[in-house]
Amino acid sequence: MKKIFFLTIAIALFFQSCMKELGNYEYSEVNKIVIDSIKTFYTIEQYSVPNITPVISQTIEKDESNLSFYWTLETSTGLDTLCKNKSFNCELYVPPGDYYSILFVFDKKTGLYTKVRFSIRVVSAIGEGLMVLSKKSGSNEAALTYFSTTNKVIKYPYFIGTDPVNIYYVRKGSTTPPLVHVMCKDNSGGVVLDPVTLTKFYNFKDFFYIPLTVVNPQSYTNVWTQYKTLASVYGSSYYTTNFAEFVCNDNKVHIRYLYGASQKMDAAYLAPDDLGYFASPFIIGTYNGPSVFIYDEKNNRFLETTSLTSNRLTKVKIKATTPRVPFDPHSMGMKLKVIHADWGLGVGSNMRIYYIMKNTDNNKNYYVEVLTTNLDFAPSKIYELSFPIDSKTKFGTSVITPSFYYSDKNKIYSFDVEVKTSVLRETLLENEEITSMFVEQHVQKNPTTNKDYFDHLRLYVGVKGSAVNGNVGSIYIYKINNDNTLTLLESQKNFTGEIVSFAWKR
Q1: How far apart are CA 302 and CA 353, in angstroms?
Q2: pLDDT tens digits, residue range 15-69?
């Protein structure tokens, strides 16, 4: 009992001394920060600027020079800082989805802060539009710019690779999502992106079941379950799903079959014999798969893929009813290198493929034409081209006239493959040099019927000119008319470095 009594007295004396000690402090009012006008939920387009501005009040300070702002996003690994301005006026790069965001407002004088938490839903801003692959100004690093049909411009914010080669849009397959291939000549080979969000799936080199010995991406093509529907005036339409995809890497061809479980590229095809093969990067996918036509630059012959179950190429099968054979596709008789190849104007039920080839022994250039129906290969034409072609010449083919376009420094010519004549169509600025050309059917969704409609063809031309704000790259967009004339629709001037490649995202 004594112990309890003395303990009680000791506690009472302790609290008395503490009270006396506390009475020796001087109290001062703390600056209180209040955040107002932030809603609980926002819907924001990816790659847009939210422009959310809080209303701030303080109990002591008269201005906001003592404050710092941190707009953050809650992630599985913690908080990511998105913006450090008072207003949330920085581009929002995160993929579409639902998130929680927290605004922290710090008093730099006291170190105290207040915060407000709210929800944001990020929605995709990526619809139909033009994707432009270029080099960043003053470097060899790849840059990707997207121009939407609603005049939105998005610059891909992350690292892609170095020494860019090509960009391709890959439509959805029966069991696979759509993709964007951005190919680069570096250790990773570029990236494979989600076209809805432009977020990265993986590096190009990881797109293969068997690791590549040499990472050297060159081109991509695919085949469809049916032919294109060729309208008489407006070019081609696409109504079917992706059937199989092919990639040319280091002059070897790989397949990804989209109806099976395979989600990556298989091993490279083997040659049909002991001669081996060296595939031109200009591999041509047919519109009634599984054939892909390949020119073997090692043995000067045309090969094709004819089966999804065999990994061996075959020599092209010549159509039995071919009335004449102007060249032997199994032995061209010349050391030919493909400079450009693409689909041209169809003739009845026959699809035409245009090849521009160079004899590497004497530097003479040739036009080679092939007709194909139901996977048959029919040699059609071969003749020497009289206009000059060098490593800087760019090409684009028309599917509404028997013609293709080619560049010479700052000039654009059309060449009629039937009458074998060139016509100057456009002369650009004297200080501009054409670095890329691309032709695509301009097909969009009609918002009323939700069906495709056509507006002829587009010729996309990338040029390198005088620098403005450090940028030398510009593009011109032309409408291709039925008489091969070009109508300038718009241009985008000095927005990047040298233009490398184009793709139209559907």
Answers
A1: 13
A2: 444 444 445 556 678 999 999 999 999 999 888 899 999 999 999 999 999 999 9
Neighbours of 429 (CB within 10 A): 11
| Short-list 4, 104, 90, CA closest to 54 | 104
Buried b (16+ CB within 10 A) or exposed e, 329-350: beebebebebbbbbbbbbeeee
Q: What letter would DSSP give residue 424?
A: E
Residue 409 CA, distance from chain mean position: 26
Residue 159 DSSP symbol:
-
Copy the structure tokens of residue 54: 């809080």
Taking the C-alpha atoms of residue 366 and residue 381, their distance in angstroms, rounded to an integer, is 10
User: Could you read off the pLDDT of 167-195 as tens digits, one per residue?
Assistant: 998 877 666 678 899 999 999 999 999 88
Residues 6+ apart with CB under 8 A from 390: none
Could you write out the three-class secondary structure of 465-490? EEEECCEEEEEEEEEECCCCCEEEEE
Q: Cα-atom radius of gyration of the chain, to the nearest Å?
A: 31
* N-to-C CA span, the chain: 89
Cis status, amide bond into 290, omega within 30 of 0: yes
Contact 351, 372 (CB under 8 A): yes
User: 3-state DSSP call for residue 5?
Assistant: helix
